[in-house]
Design a protein that fits this description.
Distance between the termini: 24 Å
Oligomer: single chain
Number of helices: 7
Shape: elongated
Helix content: 55-70%
């Protein structure tokens, strides 16, 4: 039902190639431990995630989350809650902001807990 709502709000989703966009993303998210409702929530709340490259955008962002100390379930939860994170530049946005928070005294664990 969440996917149906997303299609209703973002009909351009129907123009995406199932084999090139949706299937690989869903398989990858499943491999991260996300369940069907988490995947549906992520895609329905941020359908542009279907346009991002797994290798160039999504995997590096997940690696960064892992480097912050997030475990698989925290990463799955963060993606479901904040899929728009993938829309931000890792090098120009996320990493510098995390560094600023570290300089302000937050640990990686505290930064990670704000995402999950």
């Amino acid at each position: 039902s969440q996917i149906a709502k997303a299609i209703g709000r973002h009909s351009h989703i129907l123009t995406y190639c199932l084999e090139a966009n949706l299937k690989p993303l869903v398989q990858w998210m499943s491999g991260l431990g996300m369940d069907g409702s988490q995947i549906a929530k992520a895609i329905s709340s941020f359908p542009n995630i279907l346009l991002y490259s797994l290798e160039a955008n999504l995997k590096p962002c997940v690696q960064w989350m892992s480097d912050l100390g997030m475990d698989g379930s925290q990463i799955a939860k963060a993606i479901a809650k904040h899929p728009q994170l993938f829309g931000y530049s890792l090098e120009a946005n996320l990493k510098p902001k995390a560094q600023l928070l570290r300089e302000r005294g937050l640990s990686n664990g505290e930064i990670a807990s704000t995402l999950a």
